[in-house]
Specification:
By secondary structure, the protein is an alpha+beta fold. It folds into 2 domains: 58 residues; 145 residues, 2-Layer Sandwich (60s Ribosomal Protein L30, Chain: A). It has a 5-stranded mixed beta sheet with strand order 1-2-5-3-4. Helix 2 crosses helix 4. It starts with 7 loop residues before the first helix and ends with a helix.
Length: 279
């Protein structure tokens, strides 16, 4: 845009002609008036431009705010979308947890059934053992269930000569009755433990009570294998020496209780492990 301008030289040139002083003054006055109007217009125009710039700046700011709001809106929508995904994921997790709980509940019930079945088998085994051993003095042989295992405790006087691991004449009859029940349960494994009192022993063939307890256990498993046909893979021979007494070693009666052979019918843990692995 061009602005009005009246240079003073033009006025002077104009005044240099045949113009009266009065005319000259009138022209100067007009010039001053026009210049004043011009300056005012320039100021007003500058104000208008300034106002326009401010408005444009404000518009730019508002446009930036709109873009920011749009960006935030999109981010919020994305967050809501993510939240929806999380909620679905949580729902799936909860469902899986509930399914897992149901599975564990069924697993516990299966274990309870298996344990009840095991208890029933143990009870039947105890009854069978007591039935075949009923003619033997209860003080010399004991059959009981402890935890998940069945224990047969046999006094040393029924199996061995005093201070020896050689089998007595009664041993074959006693072990034959035990073997009869064991054969009816071919999947059962068992451990034969030798126990002694705390009287020290040392002979040419026996070093100490550890030695005696182990030798007595091996004598029993050997007899069950050779004389009664028990599969040796089902048996373990172990010696416990004097260290797990059932009574104090004070007095002959208590010592006699501690001199014993114990047959431990082992729980069939492999069945439980297979049950666990299947879940």
């Amino acid at each position: 845009m061009k602005y009005l301008s009246f240079p003073i030289d033009a006025i002077l040139l104009f005044s240099s002609g045949c113009v009266s002083k009065k005319k000259y003054n009138e022209q100067v006055s007009k010039y001053e008036s026009l210049k004043s109007n011009h300056d005012k217009i320039v100021i007003d125009l500058n104000n208008c431009l300034s106002d326009k710039d401010q408005k444009q700046l404000k518009i730019a700011v508002l446009e930036a705010e709109v873009l920011d709001l749009k960006s935030k809106s999109n981010a919020l929508l994305n967050q809501l979308s993510d939240l929806s995904v999380i909620t679905k994921s949580q729902a799936e997790s909860i469902k899986k947890s509930l399914d897992n709980i149901s599975s564990k509940d069924a697993y516990i019930k299966d274990l309870q059934v298996a344990m009840a079945k095991k208890d029933s088998l143990n009870l039947a085994l105890v009854m069978n053992l007591k039935g075949v051993l009923k003619d033997i003095n209860d003080q010399d042989i004991e059959v009981k269930v402890e935890g998940s295992a069945v224990f047969i405790s046999i006094s040393d006087k029924l199996l061995f000569k005093s201070g020896s691991y050689d089998m007595s004449t009664k041993a074959n009859d006693v072990l034959g009755k035990v073997a009869l029940v064991m054969k009816s349960q071919p999947d059962i494994q068992f451990m034969v433990e030798g126990h002694t009192d705390n009287n020290p022993i040392k002979t040419t063939s026996i070093k100490d009570n550890w030695d005696l307890s182990v030798l007595r256990a091996t004598s029993v498993v050997r007899s069950l294998q050779i004389n009664h046909g028990i599969d040796p893979k089902r048996m373990i021979a172990a010696g416990r020496s004097e260290f797990i007494p059932v009574a104090s070693n004070e007095g002959d009666a208590n010592k006699a209780l501690n001199r014993r052979t114990r047959i431990v019918i082992l729980p069939q843990l492999d069945q439980f492990f297979k049950l666990i692995e299947s879940k």
